[in-house]
Amino acid sequence: MKNLGILWAQYGPYHLARAAALKRLAGPVRVHALELANQTSTYGWQRAATGDLITLCPGAVADRLSFGRVFQRCRRMFAELKLEVCILPSYAPQQPLAALLAAKSLGLRTVMMNESHAGTARARGIGAQIKRRLVGLFDAGLVGGQPQKRYFTALGLAPEKIFTGYDAVDNDYFARRAEEIRGRAAAARGEYDLPEHYFLSLGRFVGKKNLPALIHAYRKFLGAGQNSQTHLVLVGSGEEEAKLRALCQELNLPVYDKAKTKAEGGKRESAFAALRRDKSGKVAPGVHFYGFRQIEENPVFYALADAFILPSSREEWGLVVNEAMACGLPVVVSETAGCAEDLLPPGRLPGPRSLTPAVSRQLTRLAGRLRPNGLVFNPHSANAEAALADALTLLAGDAGLRQQMGATSRERVRQFSCEEFARNALLAAQAALGN
Fold first, then answer.
1. What is the DSSP string of 390-433?
2. Which of 329, 318, 324 is nearest to 395 (CA)?
3. Domain, as residue range, for 103
4. What pLDDT digit, counting tens, does each position of 83-92 carry?
5. Are 44 and 83 found together in one domain?
6. What is the pTM of this model?
7. How far apart are CA 205 and CA 278, in angstroms?
8. Measured between alpha carbons, how far is 360 from 395 in angstroms, rounded to an integer?
9. Cβ(336)–Cβ(364) below 8 Å
10. Is the Cα torsion angle 42, 47, 49, 53 positive or negative in sign?
11. Which tens digit of pLDDT belongs to each residue from 63-96?
12. Could you tell me if 63 and 192 lie in one domain?
């Protein structure tokens, strides 16, 4: 194999890091990084120079491109680059399908990148049959983890041609930035107006993220501990934001609008926050809305948090969990997230510990959900909010446990590095060629 292509709709920070690792490990194989367009309607990523990245439709919006335009541009570029194997972003919607058919029309071998699993599958009947046929067009697969491998094996792709490790972030970047920020924690808190203690959730404000359940659980958490000073920080934006703010007001939770808080020159406490101080002078615990942030800012929120929460009702993977773990945080993740099985495997809690009777009772109650680096919960169960509130209570009350779980997170996520992505991408390409 001399020429290998890897295509995404648009290259964001995650894709650039993975492609760079692939190029480093490819040896004599020349890796060509391609994107359909340099923007999408979903993500507002900003990026610096992208080196030799090839943009097929500059100035266009990737998810609005027509089937015909994508097919023609891909076919022309694949042929010009003399690709032998092309690693492609799945088979749907129409843009990835057009790229797949362009590759097959040239006789190229193809590798499917995908993070779907049985919990996110929606196709039924004829739709499921069509999906099986489309999966059959690929010669190999590169997927997230074990749930994804089982799913595509069930769809007919040979298990020996399915490799895991697709979902990776630049672990070293997040770990390094987190340590830098913790080294100047007081200044960073002041710059971003962050509470001393907080739970963090970061991502788009859309229905599947299940953020109302987190807000309800946070309300229960505060009700169970009258002296708690742990806040809830939400970083992100989306169609559900107005509903989330309204829910906070309905539950009598203070809302702190931090969307305009920037690290430039520092920021004093908002007048609204000052009004929320209690008799002891502390700001009353509540929900802080920080808006969408670029990847360069996210390590600030991870580094200073007590724990990270991903409450999604369904989730293909959840790369924010990788980021939080690389930053050394304990994580609370819904069992339905595609990353839960691989990133939070069962095991013993790390290290010998001296426990208070109260913490021992909590651990007993949460035994089935405890993991060495955090907790899991079923977002569809009748007591989901109570279970999530119990997890918050446990973590808020035990700094030693948080520290041990965070250290285990860092160790575990090393198995999901960009280098591991690159190694398995190359193995998948060789498998696609029949080697």
1. HHHHHHHT-HHHHHHHHHHHHHHHTTS-HHHHHHHHHHHHHHHT
2. 329
3. 3-168+417-432
4. 999 999 999 8
5. yes
6. 0.92
7. 30
8. 13
9. no
10. negative
11. 999 999 999 999 999 999 999 999 999 998 999 9
12. no
